[in-house]
User: Which sequence fits this backbone?
């Protein structure tokens, strides 16, 4: 008997195509986001962790928790973000991180008023950079979850797909690699 696969997958092929168009269609902006030119790396990692907490991708959770530590986010804040807790988030970034969570929960279809508020607070160019980061992590989340779903199906539901690496595991690995 199958257990229920609890992580999120793309609801439709058109949702996947929309995320791909959003990222591939803007290569210059994409490079700026990933290189830290349009979004500060710590801010970007907070967004990535907020979306990953909603979608539940264990691979992205591990990777972005590790990256968060590398860019200076504390282990406690990374742990919180990975579980949907925003306590350590800087006040000026909190609206965008909460928007990222809402964006993920609504499958990339946020309430127009929520998006308008982010544009008002951050401006149109920064909002576009934020949403580009959100599309990017959603692709990664759904790819990781789809891979796990295939493993789940091949194992007839016996493989423990609900197992997610803890942020503390990423913390130990990041500490070792950050040492000279």
Assistant:
């Amino acid at each position: 008997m199958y257990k229920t696969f609890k992580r999120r997958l793309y609801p439709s092929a058109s949702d996947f195509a929309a995320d791909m168009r959003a990222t591939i269609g803007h290569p210059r902006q994409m490079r700026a986001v990933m290189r830290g030119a349009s979004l500060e790396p710590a801010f970007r990692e907070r967004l990535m962790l907020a979306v990953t907490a909603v979608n539940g991708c264990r691979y992205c959770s591990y990777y972005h928790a590790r990256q968060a530590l590398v860019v200076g986010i504390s282990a406690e804040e990374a742990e919180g973000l990975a579980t949907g807790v925003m306590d350590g988030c800087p006040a000026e970034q909190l609206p965008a991180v909460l928007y990222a969570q809402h964006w993920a929960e609504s499958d990339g279809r946020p309430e127009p008023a929520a998006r308008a508020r982010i544009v008002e607070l951050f401006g149109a160019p920064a909002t576009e950079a934020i949403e580009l980061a959100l599309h990017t992590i959603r692709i990664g989340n759904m790819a990781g979850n789809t891979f796990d779903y295939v493993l789940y199906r091949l194992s007839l539901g016996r493989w423990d797909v609900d197992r997610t690496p803890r942020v503390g595991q990423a913390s130990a690995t990041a500490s070792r690699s950050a040492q000279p």
Remarks:
- The domain at 13-172 is CATH 1.20.1290 (AhpD-like).
